[in-house]
Design brief:
Structural class: alpha/beta
Order of helices and strands: EEEHHHEHEHEHEHEEEHHEEHEEEH
Distance between the termini: 34 Å
Radius of gyration: 21 Å
Number of helices: 11
Strand content: 15-25%
Number of strands: 15
Strand order of the largest sheet: 4-10-9-8-7-5-6
Shape: globular
Length: 392
């Protein structure tokens, strides 16, 4: 296809020429009729797969009733979803937004406001090297992605980075200006980096001891992705602030910031957004969270994760993977040489969508209700792709 077809789009990422026109469950179809088994799912967005009946029903029903009355007015789906999330999290209040970056931006603002009110003006937030929190200027400054501090100078001040998974480094970094610690329970964009057991519990203790806030960015790990509704449940940790995105809307743009009662200090006008909490998106969010929070569903996520782990382990024995890591249905492997992009391209040609977040890393984020037959098919295609590239 001529490049002119794509010229109206700003070139912010490399994309294949295929144009996706239809999706169902774990599959996508392009304009040439080719079918792809999707183990990216919008970067862990489509929790229930493509075009699930729960979302279609919620969209259709709500679109015929009310789409956006104004964020200055209450609406029923917003209230229902906020109550559901509060019940699931044990936190007190919810602010809705439209993307994970916006939810994290709101968390940063809330923490700094809390620092003004409760910590004598403390404002600094400790975050982690290689962390990822979004693409606004503030969330880029909070992120620890290499090179981001020079992209759009000057970078926003007030963030310091410590090594991920190292609670002692956090302890040493806390000062009188520290207001919060912001971490992902598992670093997603860094390549599914899983911290040592007890890391979140140690951070909770440090936050309590120093009277600072613990903010968990569960934009990627939340809404069932790791086999529990919140990843932090696996360490029995309740943060002061938690952010959700991606899977919350199952494919539509909605995110949320949840906060404990003692951390809620916004005044009227401190935060807002034209589309925040609109009934169309919150109706979908409610349908998704009700489906995913069902314990039988979550047990299925955990079971499917074990199947993927076992399959990747077998492939690793043949193709010399350096590491296999993950939880639930968020997995990554490190190859023995930096050829992940080549494997990704080969898999695409063979009909499988996988992600290469690092030069030697492949990441897998299937739908949370992925079928066992689709897992087997994906691993078979991946095997062919790995052999085609000769990853040794």
């Amino acid at each position: 296809m001529s490049e002119d077809k794509f010229s109206p789009l700003m070139p912010i990422t490399s994309r294949p020429e295929s144009i996706m026109i239809r999706g169902k469950g774990s599959y996508l179809w392009d304009d040439r009729g080719r079918r792809y088994l999707d183990f990216i799912q919008g970067w862990a967005v489509n929790a229930l797969g493509h075009c699930p009946p729960e979302i279609l029903e919620a969209l259709g029903q709500q679109a015929g009733q009310l789409i956006n009355p104004s964020p200055a007015l209450h609406n029923a789906p917003q209230l229902a979803l906020s109550s559901h999330l509060v019940s699931l999290s044990g936190l007190s209040q919810v602010h809705f937004a439209n993307s994970g970056a916006e939810a994290n931006e709101a968390a940063i603002k809330l923490a700094r406001k809390w620092g003004q009110v409760k910590r004598s003006g403390a404002f600094e937030i400790l975050s982690t090297k290689n962390g990822f929190h979004g693409r606004t200027l503030a969330t880029m400054a909070a992120s620890g992605k290499a090179g981001w501090d020079t992209l759009f100078p000057p970078p926003m001040p007030g963030f310091r980075k410590v090594p991920f998974g190292d609670a002692e480094a956090v302890s040493q970094a806390i000062t009188s200006e520290t207001v919060a610690v912001l971490v992902e329970p598992i670093q997603g964009e860094a390549g599914v980096i899983v911290p040592p057991s007890g890391y979140l519990r140690d951070l909770r203790s440090l936050a309590d001891d120093h009277n600072i806030l613990l903010i968990l960015d569960e934009v990627q790990t939340g809404v069932g992705r790791t086999g529990t509704f919140f990843a932090c449940e696996q360490e029995n940790v309740t943060p002061d602030i938690i952010t959700l995105g991606k899977g919350l809307g199952g494919g539509v743009p909605i995110s949320a910031m949840l906060a404990a009662k003692h951390a809620c200090c916004f005044a009227y006008g401190d935060q807002g957004g034209t589309y925040n909490g609109n009934p169309l998106m919150t109706a979908v969010g409610l349908a998704v969270t009700k489906a995913v929070s069902n314990q039988h569903f979550l047990d299925g996520v955990a079971a499917a994760g074990i199947v993927i782990q076992d399959a990747l382990t077998k492939l690793g024995d043949r193709f010399d993977f350096r590491d296999i890591r993950g939880s639930g249905l968020l997995w990554a492997v490190d190859l023995s040489r930096p050829c992940a992009a080549d494997v990704q391209a080969a898999a695409f040609e063979l009909g499988l969508l996988v992600n290469a977040p690092r030069s030697n890393t492949l990441r897998f984020m299937p739908a949370l209700n992925v079928e066992s037959d689709d897992i087997a098919s994906a691993m078979e295609i991946l095997e062919h792709a790995l052999a085609r590239v000769d990853v040794h």
